[in-house]
Design a protein that fits this description.
The complex is a heterodimer. Chain A is α/β, with parallel strands linked by helices. Chain A is 39% helix and 26% strand. Chain A is built from 9 helices and 9 strands. In chain A, the strands form 2 sheets. Chain A has a 6-stranded mixed sheet, with helices on both faces. Chain A has a 3-stranded antiparallel sheet with strand order 2-1-4, covered by helices on one side. In chain A, helix 4 crosses helix 6 and helix 5 crosses helix 6. Chain B is mainly α. The two termini of chain B are 39 Å apart. Classes of the chains: A alpha/beta, B mainly alpha. At the A-B interface, helix 1, helix 2, strand 4, helix 4 and helix 7 of A face strand 1, helix 2, helix 4, helix 8 and helix 11 of B.
Chain lengths: 257, 278
Amino acid sequence: MSDVIEEKGGFAAVQPMIQLENVSVDYRLPSERIGTFKEYAIRKLQRKIRINKFSALKGVDLQINRGEVFGLIGNNGAGKSTMLKVISKVLKPTTGRVVIYGKIAPLLELGAGFHPELSGRENVFLNGSLLGYSRAEMEAVFDDIVEFSELSQFIDSPVRAYSSGMFARLGFAVATAHVPEILILDEILSVGDEAFQRKCNNRMKSFQQAGTTVLMVSHALDTLEGMCDRLAWIDHGKILKIDEPRKVIAAYRGENW
Amino acid sequence: MTLLATHSKPVYDSASYRVSAISELRELGKYRYLIGQLIRRDILTRYKRSVLGVAWTMLNPLGTMLILTFVFSNFFKSAVPHYPVYILSGLLVWNFFAQGTNASISGLVWGGSLLKRIYIPSSVFGVSAIGTALVNLIISLIPLVVVMLVDGAPFYLSMLFLPISILLLTAFTLGFGLFISSVAVFFPDVAEMYQVLLTAWLYLTPVIYPESLISAKWLPFYKINPMYWMVKMFRLPIFEGRIPSWQEFLPALAWAAGMLVVGWLYFTSKTEEYAYRV
């Protein structure tokens, strides 16, 4: 990927896009779940509220460079999702610092935010606005979205009548309608049938050529090995290894099998 | 495909990032298209599969008004001429407040599932909830005019004051909605308790009964209630045919501005915690 940058800028082959410096995230969990105000008030009076600290990330340092396709692997609960949240501005780290040098386009769980009663067309604009785009930005890519999702016949039907495949296609088309500077993918590459998957992969490749930085989380190790420049293996909130995909996957498999 | 531009300065730096009352306001401006889309969604979907559609916005208060008129007209008729107009002008205010604040709570809870995954300024949900209620309020002014015509109630020039009344009510409801919704994020049962509170609050506000029924001894206590002043801002110009005096206007203004500022400050002070909690 680095040659793309050299062609463009001529200098500084490696530019940081995402930097994490000693990042920790602590969730404060009450030792018992207190779900109601009544309980809270009673416990507060009895001074019986105990808070347990759960560290989802522990002092993580990481630099992802411009144009890189970077993957995260690790067991469930290792801290992968928390890492994505910290990077996409959803969570502010408890300590440490996150610096991002580009606009982030998170790929929302496909179809999250869709309303079943609204038509495909209406949902395209609603979903686009949730992702932070303006009306003009959405109008500019609308035809492309319809074409890419292959839904021109059904675009004015309510999406409750869509199959799950149609739903996912429309969601993917909206989320990737603009060339993002940073694209975040959370376990959602298996969209639709094989032909559509090929289209998705082509779109991802064209993003890479345009210089998009991609950060992806997946349990599909073979997919990651094929797509990523580097992988990081996270376990219990710490990065155990960052290297080229083949080596990291070998180490991860060695540990888990 | 064009190559992307490079940023030499960070787009986001967690070390200097803090959600403040001012920064949230700026973000709200950036996301104004989303606010419009959410209002549109709520209005469209509420009626999409119903036969009468938007007409429900008008029939709903009209139906309540008919029932209340039927039940209470014997009690209050002598005290209040044009009782249907009296009750409808109060109900519009109350429905706006109840609907707007409830929608703020449910909007933030719904939005919470998104707030955990992508960045959205969380105040868009409360603001769009009030926006939806405002559209409904304006639509429901139509049945008010119809009832006034049918009942033969006079139309006063003072009704031109209503945009100011609506502005005050909107500010107050937005502030209160932001406040109650951010409390409800942390304690889900607040949403339930709020329904009980709303019922009590309705009966403590002269919406259904005439103000003249309140004894002089208790009147000072009624005047603590902000909704007492909000209802007055509508009743005076519609019903009594005069614009509010300064003594009537200033308490309403103070409540509206105060609640908006307090609600906004409280809401934004909790914003960074929502993703940890909702």
